[in-house]
Specification:
The chain has 9 helices and 4 strands. The protein has 2 domains: about 5-65 and about 145-260, no CATH class; about 70-135. It is α+β, with helices and mostly antiparallel strands. It is globular and about 55 Å long. It has a 4-stranded antiparallel sheet, sandwiched between helices. The chain starts with 20 loop residues before the first helix and ends in an 18-residue tail after the last helix. The chain has helices spanning about 20-40, 50-65, 70-90, 95-100, 105-140, 150-160, 205-215, 220-225, 245-255, and strands at about 145-150, 175-180, 195-200, 230-235.
Length: about 270
């Protein structure tokens, strides 16, 4: 059976460290674009409630994502300025050792380049952290279709009592979903501060989410529910042909591949 979520920290994949601010921004925008397209469908039928919430979600989410700047050009410009100024700064400081040394000019240039690279790295790191936070806020805090696992199961039991067949539930639509675990009860809508996340895709989100919760899908989601963690479900409806791209964008924007979407082979052996 799956492990408790606290056991994951040391074994998680580290995909997120290689992502830049623009990666988070582009992925979050892709999610919003895909959900917005299906939410604006004219004929919504029995899924009208799901689409209505999605329609309200996309404008707010887009505002949050627009707060993520295109940082790469900015970082490069600042780094270039620092590299240009660094030799003068060193000379003005009267660094006699550097001036007297053979090849001092090259050393100063290298020093300037190192300082510029350090500045660019610091800018990139801060931008990455901001972008990660804003992407999560956009896709989780403002999500219209979200509910606790307890409420999801209540809905499932209610529909089961009505003899609703597979594919006929209120969430039985094409789309992706995120099942998210929190260290404590969520307060003030801070759904972006999670500790574990799984992103799935399905042509029947309702059934697939239920399978994950009861142990027929992702074992780590089941472990979280079993051990009484604070778990929420987020739904992102889409057109049938957009399942793969929506899933990939959600995984990137939410770093799910550093959590429960991580490759389980190898580092999970002997830990189940």
């Amino acid at each position: 059976m799956g492990r408790k979520p606290s056991d994951f920290t040391a074994a998680q994949s580290n995909y997120s460290t290689a992502r830049e601010a623009n990666d988070y921004r582009d992925a979050a925008q892709a999610v919003i674009d895909i959900v917005e397209a299906v939410a604006n469908m004219a004929n919504k039928g029995k899924f009208a409630a799901v689409f209505e919430k999605a329609t309200k979600f996309t404008p707010l989410a887009r505002q949050m994502v627009n707060m993520i700047p295109n940082v790469a050009p900015v970082a490069n410009r600042v780094a270039a300025v620092v590299r240009d100024k660094a030799p003068d700064a060193v000379n003005e400081a009267g660094d006699s050792v550097v001036r007297a040394a053979k090849g001092a000019g090259d050393m100063v240039v290298q020093r300037g380049k190192a300082v510029g690279d350090a500045v660019r790295g610091a800018i990139d790191e801060r931008a990455q952290q901001k972008a990660r936070t804003e992407a999560r806020r956009a896709l989780l805090d403002g999500a219209g279709n979200k509910l606790s696992v307890e409420d999801f199961m209540k809905t499932w039991r209610m529909q089961s009592g009505l003899s609703v067949q597979d594919g006929e539930g209120i969430f039985a639509y094409y789309g992706c979903y995120a099942i998210v675990t929190y260290p404590s009860a969520v307060k003030k809508g801070n759904y972006h501060k999670f500790k574990g996340i799984y992103v799935g895709k399905s042509d029947d989100m309702f059934k697939s989410i239920h399978d994950d919760i009861i142990g027929k899908g992702n074992v780590d989601v089941y472990a979280d529910v079993k051990y009484g963690q604070h778990v929420y479900v987020f739904l992102y409806p889409c057109a049938a042909g957009k399942l793969e791209s929506l899933e990939a964008s959600l995984i990137t924007a939410l770093d799910a591949d550093s959590s429960y979407n991580a490759e389980k082979t190898g580092w999970l052996e002997g830990n189940d």
